[in-house]
């Protein structure tokens, strides 16, 4: 039913334009139940391009989960009526770009209900239990591959964040595949404002999970320490916890490893975002706080700095990381 080349995702948009007025006025999906009947249906356009849209006053019956009213692009048999290439709501184009840069690690699956499904495939060598043999050419290949995967993961996260920030929903499914096992996107990648969810999971299921996870965080400080096993170094950051009486507002996390390795992967310095991949675990006690998340890394491929086109935007997008409303379920 769904061709390989056709991307059928729809975006539930919170805003639109009426073109029967001079000048055109913006309308909000929140007004659909009370005012929608008065809007001429042929005269509604995307807020950012000329695509025709329709108002959907959705009822709980339409989906398993109740959904607020929204606008959607009017489907046209045989294509057409697409969002403009540069339109904010042109999700097909944005995903095309992410896929093209993913080195084939972002796969699209067929699904029976027509909803697009995307799967981010992680290199086999990075299964949960495996430590990476250092110094071989094989490691180099996996390292390059994983860095691409992490950058792809960060771009997907930025895309989803971007739409969530506008209160727009993308009607599609994302997942990651770790060592042949499917992991739901929200259980695989944690953006700064959702790190507390990982913290909770590790409290409940911990001290470690059955699969690796990727965490986007802002590095704030690096320090070295000497022990009987040699000199190690760590780069730390903080993340917000949901406001609760009597508990701290922020918690710390740290990426730990051999001195030279940490120097290398955090070469871009602090005050910027990185993504750390591997078996994150929860550590009780310690010099800094009661609980902290930790990741021991063994390969440079486990950390990527978010430095390309996603780089500038997360700084503003993820700045308000205490924004805890509308979080998807744990
Ligand atoms: Zn548009």
TrEMBL record:
Residues 57-82 are annotated as: Disordered. Residues 64-80 have a biased composition (Basic residues). It comes from the Bacteria. This is Uncharacterized protein. It comes from Nocardia acididurans.
């Amino acid at each position: 039913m769904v061709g390989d080349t056709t991307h059928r995702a729809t975006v539930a948009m919170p805003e639109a334009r009426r073109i029967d007025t001079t000048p055109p006025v913006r309308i909000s999906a929140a007004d659909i139940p009370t005012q929608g009947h008065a809007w001429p249906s042929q005269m509604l356009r995307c807020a950012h391009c000329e695509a025709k849209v329709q108002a959907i006053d959705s009822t709980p019956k339409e989906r398993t989960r109740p959904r607020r009213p929204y606008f959607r692009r009017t489907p046209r048999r045989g294509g057409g009526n697409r969002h403009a290439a540069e339109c904010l709501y042109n999700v097909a184009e944005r995903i095309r770009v992410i896929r093209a840069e993913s080195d084939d690690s972002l796969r699209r699956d067929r699904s029976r209900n027509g909803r697009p499904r995307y799967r981010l495939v992680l290199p086999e060598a990075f299964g949960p239990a495996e430590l990476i043999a250092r110094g071989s050419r094989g490691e180099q290949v996996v390292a390059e591959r994983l860095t691409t995967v992490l950058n792809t993961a960060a771009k997907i996260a930025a895309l989803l964040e971007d739409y969530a920030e506008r209160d727009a929903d993308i009607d599609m499914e994302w997942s990651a595949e770790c060592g042949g096992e499917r992991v739901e996107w929200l259980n695989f990648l944690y953006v700064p404002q959702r790190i507390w969810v990982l913290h909770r999971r590790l409290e409940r299921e911990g001290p470690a999970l059955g699969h690796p996870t990727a965490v986007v965080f802002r590095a704030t400080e690096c320090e070295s320490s000497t022990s009987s096993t040699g000199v190690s170094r760590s780069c730390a950051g903080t993340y917000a916890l949901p406001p609760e009486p009597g508990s701290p507002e922020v918690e710390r996390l740290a990426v730990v490893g051999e001195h030279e390795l940490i120097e290398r992967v955090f070469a871009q310095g602090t005050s910027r975002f990185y993504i750390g991949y591997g078996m994150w675990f929860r550590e009780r006690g310690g010099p800094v706080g009661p609980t902290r998340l930790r990741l021991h890394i063994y390969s440079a491929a486990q950390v990527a700095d978010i430095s390309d086109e996603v780089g500038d935007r997360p700084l503003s997008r993820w700045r308000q990381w205490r924004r805890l409303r509308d979080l998807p379920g744990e």
